[in-house]
Design goal:
The chain is an all-alpha fold. It has a domain at about 25-75. The protein is built from four helices and no strands. It has helices spanning about 5-40, 45-55, 55-70, 85-90. α2 packs across α3. It is elongated and about 70 Å long.
Length: about 100
C-alpha cells in the first residue's frame, strides 16, 4: 500500500469520526426546527401534540398513514388572522396614499 493511500485512509477515518460525533447535534437542531415550525403553524397545543405523536416511532407512523388515507390532518393548521385595514379593501392597482 502506498503512502498516498495510507494518508487518504487515515484522513477518511478522522473525517468519519468527526462527522459521527456531530450527528446527534445536527439531529437535535433539525428536531427543534421541526417543533418550532409545527407549533407556529398549528398553534401551541396542536403543534405540540402533533410533534409528540410523530416522535413516538410506531404511533407517528400510524398517525401519518391514517392522515394520508383520510386526506387531512388530525390537528389542522390555524387559520391566519384576518386584517381589517385599508390595505385589505384597496382594489389592485390603486394607491392608499391621497
Amino acid at each position: 500500500m502506498s503512502i498516498g493511500n495510507k494518508v487518504a485512509r487515515w484522513g477518511g477515518i478522522r473525517l468519519s469520526r468527526r462527522l459521527s460525533r456531530s450527528i446527534p447535534l445536527v439531529g437535535t437542531v433539525v428536531a427543534l426546527a421541526t417543533v418550532f415550525a409545527t407549533v407556529r403553524r398549528k398553534g401551541v397545543v396542536s403543534g405540540t401534540l402533533d410533534t409528540g405523536f410523530n416522535a413516538v416511532p410506531f404511533v407517528g407512523a400510524l398517525k401519518n398513514i391514517a392522515e394520508v388515507v383520510r386526506g387531512r390532518d388530525f390537528f389542522p393548521d390555524r387559520y391566519p388572522a384576518r386584517r381589517y385595514g385599508t390595505a385589505a379593501r384597496v382594489p389592485a392597482g390603486r394607491s392608499t396614499v391621497r
